[in-house]
Amino acid sequence: MNTIVPLPDLINETNINEGCITFTPDGKTMIFAKGNTGRRKGTNDVDLYISRYRNGQWSEAVPININLPDAWESTPALSPDGRTLYFSSNRKGGYGGLDLYSAQMDSRGRFGKVKNLGAEINTAGSETFPYVSDNGKMYFSSDGHPGYGMLDIFVVNRVNGKTVVENLGQPVNSTSDDFGLFLFKPDRGFFTSNREGGKGDDDIYTFINEDPNLKVVNYFLEGITYMIRKDSTREILPNTKVSLMDPDDDVMQDYVTGNDGKFLFRVYENENYTLLGETDGFIIKRQPFTTIGKSVPLETLKELVTNITLDTIMVFDRKERNKIFVLENIYFGYDSADIRKDAAIELDKLVTLLNDNSDLKIEMGSHTDSVASESYNIELSQRRAESTVNYLIRKGIDPNRLVAKGYGESIPIARNTNPDGTDNPEGRQRNRRTEFKILEIGQLIKRDDEDEEDKYFRNENLPKKKNDN
Fold first, then answer.
1. What is the pTM (predicted TM-score) of this model?
2. Are 369 and 415 in contact (CB under 8 A)?
3. How many CA atoms lie within 13 Å of 294's alpha carbon, on the beta-carbon side?
4. What is the per-residue pLDDT across 246-289, written as a single tens digit (0 to 9) for each?
5. Which residues lie closer than 8 Å to 292 by C-beta, 6 or more apart?
6. Are strands 62-63 and 57-58 parallel, antiparallel or unpaired?
7. How many domains does the chain have?
């Protein structure tokens, strides 16, 4: 093969080992492991480096910002979308010799949110050579999970939101070291092994999955971020960070929308998620999404690979003083200010909103219809407003961020009676409402994780009445 040529000296250095390379989907960014510089001894001297292809040549390789000075980092692998980096490291705090970690790349090409992949994947042994195929499954090698001996290749399956690790079995795995799997098609690929019968120490092997029932279904969630204009119509909201979170509120993927407001995530069948959206000047929003009941029966598929795209939208409200939000389903018992169970569910959502938007001071306003006297309605609504505020305080919201205000029947949003004087129950129902109003927008309370993220970003060398009330 006459086309094989070494990469330039900016990448390859004399008497230094470079290897385990991974590329972004466009082929213009590579990350690789590099070690043995001679400056230090031992296994710590392996770090991850990054280089970008610009103006027809590769830039000088520089260490990426997730390397730790006293740890060994290697076997990098980028996800198919190029936004998540997986790697192996012996850094402190792991489960064994070498553990698998992930790191998220932000819109400026910086890495952060380094996360150990957890005890379901990592063991007291060593886990290396992660690889995420186009079908979204992760493969890796381990000598800690039950296997045939030495390093075996495993696949990570997601079953009803849980991680299940499965040995690929024979003939892929043997009593020797088997590692470095790569799929160039869903049913065929390569891996490396030092099993008997090879031509040297480590040899490359190819394989074909001949399972006639093999079907690959890729699920994606595509959405658009909008804001509400003053005339209540929608307008695309660009430059919004959207995160896909699992039921434990762990971030699985991040995305920053462009001018089209679109975001895209890989999702899996029979799982529940939360979408977390944030951008300057708007209230941080959480929105549930589920794939339960949306799976495609495999027996109906004819192609080896099927891509299914699910749709959603996220609508954001501006963060501005005196803006009023009506809370749905905040009902009270007859002549009562006690918080009912159904109202508690809705108030818990407000607790989450206030925790996410820690710069807001709000007024909890309670309103009634016009049944009973005006003074009675004022007194009842004040007790109800204070009851909601006390509930929020018990849930951990700072009292200094809350004001209780009872408006009684003074600010109706619908008619309590019809023009002919008859009762209008639908209108009275709308008037019996609980609202919150933004009073002040102060300094955002710094999140506990910001210092940790900043640590990973430093030394970055990338571009820079009674009744019915």
1. 0.79
2. no
3. 18
4. 998 888 888 999 999 999 999 999 999 999 999 999 999 999 99
5. 270, 271, 272
6. unpaired
7. 3
